[in-house]
Amino acid sequence: MPAGYRNYLSLKHEHKTIPYGGVGEVREDGDANYGFKDIKGNNRLLNTIPELERDPALMTLIRAINTPQTGIFSIGSVSDSHEDKHHFRHSGYIEFSFNSVTHIADAVNYFPLFFNFERLLNDKEFVFKVEFNWVLQPATFIDKGIWGYTCTICLNTYFSETKSEAENVWKETLDVLVKYLSSIPNDHPDYIFDLDE
Predict the structure, then answer these.
(1) Backbone angle region of 79, left / alpha / beta, with phi > 0 → left and psi within -120 to 50 → alpha
(2) Is residue 10 assigned to a domain?
(3) Burial status of residue 131 (CB atoms within 10 A of its CB: 0-12, 13-18, 19 or more)
(4) Span 65-108, pLDDT tens digits
(5) pLDDT tens, position by position, 119-141
(6) CA 30: distance to chain centroid?
(7) Number of structural domains found in the chain
(8) How far is it, in rounded angstroms, from Cα 49 to Cα 55?
């Protein structure tokens, strides 16, 4: 059966700074920006992120990424549902970084994550119609004086006939990301953000 997904990698040259501010101001796309929070290893702070309250699947993904056992941490995320002429789909993104000063310095370190995720989707015969766009972007962690790259996975499901079908595709999409991203090992102890126990 042919794959229903598209998985590709791109580079965004616009430089960003972290942390970024936000107090809930609404952007042009209708979403609100609540700013960056360091939640690595600190599940208590998850409940302070409003965009996670309305999407339990996204909450599960963010929780999985930020456990002390993973070598990455989340930077930002959002999700939204769309309806057009009685068809339904979901979109969103998850931005993350390696939690290692030396490992984020070279964008090439993200390529194995992308490549092995493609292999996982193929091996699992992932047939849901979803676009995964991995975007690498230069960034400075200004409070830490560290420069490197982050990775954002932009997610767009195709339209489904029913709202429940669209929700199921979104959940399956985030489930595969939970399993994959939560397996990235904590191999580099030169942490950007210390692990809260």
Answers:
(1) beta
(2) yes
(3) middle
(4) 999 999 999 999 999 999 988 899 999 999 999 999 999 999 99
(5) 999 999 999 999 999 999 999 99
(6) 19
(7) 1
(8) 11
